[in-house]
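User: Okay, second chain of the day. Same drill as before: sequence in, structure tokens out.
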Amino acid sequence: MQENFKYIAKLSGSALFSFIKINLLGTISTIIVVVIGFFLLTQDVNVGSSGHATPIPFIIATFILRPVSTILFSIVFFSSSALFLTFGNKYIISKLVNRITIDKGEGYLVALLDKLMLKYKKQQPAILRNAGDFSIQKLKVIQDIKNDKTVNKWLRKVIVLGMEKIRLDGIEFNDENQNPYDIIRNRTIESLKNIMEPSRKMIWMIFALQWAILLFIWSSNF
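Assistant: Same drill. Structure tokens below.
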């Protein structure tokens, strides 16, 4: 039990460090790009006294003067945080899966899945007659795992990711001897093993896009 706790703490620490690093760097980059971009966009804008009453004339004037740059600036301003959060989480989960695979921790995941699906094992297993039945049972399990606060949130994300990537080929539907939850467990482990090694490519692309937009705003009059 103590070894499991240490292992979970190790994985959680790695995930938390990556989360903070990605989102902190993303926030710093976004602030710099937004501040400089706003200055470049608005330095030649003059809407007179009406600009003091409401920001709408100011925004309209900026858009009329430089429509493309204003749209690109808005994309950076409104979407950067969500993009860093989304792709950062995907990278972190892939990193955890890769770490578990390297550590040969599949047995731990199997034990965790058995614990999470214990209440289903106590029930009479349902017969899977088609892919629709399987999808319904899988969604029920996924929803319960998402709501189970007794399990580390990063490990829950890892397991849910594996379940979402389950492939249906080879499942013998209408087999009365099958247990759908054993199938879900085994296919989850199988799908996690097939996840590619973690890549920061999308995260770097977001950084590159931010600064490319800033360069466009600086060098263009559009």
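The two ends are 62 Å apart (CA to CA).

User: Thanks, on to the next one.
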